[in-house]
Structures are given as structure tokens and as C-alpha cells.
Amino acid sequence: xxxxxxxxxxxxxxxxxxxxxxxxxxxxxxxxxxxxxxxxxxxxxxxxxxxxxxxxxxxxxxxxxxxxxxxxxxxxxxxxxxxxxxxxxxxxxxxxxxxxxxxxxxxxxxxxxxxxxxxxxxxxxxxxxxxxxxxxxxxxxxxxxxxxxxxxxxxxxxxxxxxxxxxxxxxxxxxxxxxxxxx
Amino acid sequence: xxxxxxxxxxxxxxxxxxxxxxxxxxxxxxxxxxxxxxxxxxxxxxxxxxxxxxxxxxxxxxxxxxxxxxxxxxxxxxxxxxxxxxxxxxxxxxxxxxxxxxxxxxxxxxxxxxxxxxxxxxxxxxxxxxxxxxxxxxxxxxxxxxxxxxxxxxxxxxxxxxxxxxxxxxxxxxxxxxxxxxxxxxxxxxxx
Lengths: 183, 192
What we know:
The structure holds two protein chains of two kinds.
Chain A: H1 2-21, H2 30-40, H3 46-58, H4 66-105, H5 109-137, H6 141-156, H7 162-178
Chain B: H1 18-31, H2 37-47, H3 53-65, H4 70-113, H5 117-142, H6 149-165, H7 169-191
Helix pairs in contact in B: 1-2, 1-4, 3-4, 6-7
């Protein structure tokens, strides 16, 4: 019983922290979430982590629901609820209180310059997240090829990325049903 | 008063009542295959006529500036503009109602069937595609980084600290954010 409360507290505190620190979107905190949930807490394996990320991309709704799945893995449905609330409340409070300030100051030179300074950090975080995901999952040549094709499609075209997920889903189902076991 | 400030309602703007605000965000969350942004635009601009395209772009830029999910932030800002605190709470709660239910169901199913080899096969294909999606997005964003040695230095430092040294995120940000902003100001001064 005691361990459950400790885990819920850990989910609450860390999801709130990631909520505040995720400057530039949900995905920038992903490598830190991996570090904590997989390496430090062993709530799930690295493959499960990537699977949760893939599921959260495939399901309808906002991205970033992987945290809810991780919370659920660590502490059941209460864990899922705590993760959702903790990930939404801090960032919402910041947006609520900061919106009118930003609206009044966004055209000032120093705000523009400071914003430009955030870009390399955000992109560096995103690349680190990509590295962690790819490293955990691309253990077969067929998987590496699929990652490269998907990356090329996103980079070169303006297709909705959901078709990549559905396409790979079809590929995986075919592979499973025919017993080809490509992946 | 400046009537372009989007945190206050403009003259002649359609203001939804609380129930319609909540229900519209429930629909945005429930329909949002492949990200909710296109659905948020469709619902708020095309279907309900709460704002025009320029208004939505303005709202989204504002939502993107703050940490956390972009569309949830848009919900907070739009909900606040129309109904204050209760509007913000209704928009965000609505947005996450359907995804929360589907996610929890997915979590229960995955715990049940994870060890099944056929399920493993399916995920074996979906997971690399999902990481490729991230890689492609990151590659696109690299094009937006200022073409300066300092900026790419910070990018490389952040990458190394997160991917290899494995520092916690808060520590990396504590070191790299001030550094990056200072470099950005240095370049801005040199241009002037």
C-alpha cells in the first residue's frame, strides 16, 4: 500500500516537472522521461516505452499521452489519472497567467531575440529524444529501413503523419498473419 | 484599448456558451487522428466561426510559446478569453475527455497482450515508423535553427548531455538555456 503512494507521488512530481520544462512541445522531454521511467525506476522496458510512444501517436487526441500510459504501467488507473492532471495543470497555469503578458510584449526586440535563443535547445532535445527512441527499437535491419523511409516521408512530403502509422500497422499485421516475422 | 489583443474578446465576436465550448473541445479531442491541430482549426474556424484563419494562427502562435501541449494551451487561452477560469477548465477537460478513456483502455489491452508474438510483430513495424516520424520532424526543425556557430554548438551540447551523459532535463536546461539566450543576444548585438 505504501509503495503505491510513493509511486503516485513520483508520477505527480515528475509529470509536473516535465510539464513546466517541455518548452517547444511535449516531445522535447521524451529522453528525460525515458531516463527516469526506464533507467531509474524500471517501470517499463525500453521497448515498451517506444511502444507507448507509438500508441500515443496512433490514438486520436493530443500527442503526449504516452505519459498517461507510463503512469498506468507504474500505478494502474490512478497512476494514469495523476499523470494526466500533473502534466496539464502546471503548463495550463503558465499559459493562463502568461498569455496577456506575452501578447503585449511579443514584438519587443529582446523577446524576439530570447525566443530565437530557445530554438537550438528545443531542436537539440528533440534530436536526443529521437536518438533514444531509435536506439531502443531499431535492432533489426528491417526496422532501420522502416525508420529511414518514415523519416524521409516526413522530411520530403506534407502528408499527415497518421498515414505512416497506419501504413506500418498494415505492414506489421501482414507480417504477423503471414508468419513472415519481418520485424 | 487595443482591440487586437487576443486575450480579450473582439467586438462582434461570436462567444459560445459554456456547454458549446466544452462540447466543441470534446469533439476536437475525439476526432483528432494524427494530432489535434487540424481538427482544432476546423472546429473553431470553419464549423463554429469563433474566429477567422488569422485569428486562429494568432491563437496557435500564442499557445506554442508556452510549455506544455500546444492545443491544450490554445484551449486555456480561448477558454479564458470567453469565460475566464471556468472556460479554461472546460476547454482542457473537454479536450482530454475522449483521449483519456481510449488511452486507459489501450493501456489495459497492451498489458494483457504484450507478450503475444503476433502483437510483438505488429509493434515491431509501428515503433520504427513512429521513431522515423520523430527523426523526420527533427530534421525539418534543424532547418529553422539560426545559421550560427554558437547556435549549433548549443544544439550539439544539449544533444550530448541528454543522449550520452544522461543528465536530468532540468539540469541541462539550467545550463544551456541561459547560454543559448546569451549567445542569441551576442549575435543580435553584432548585427546592429
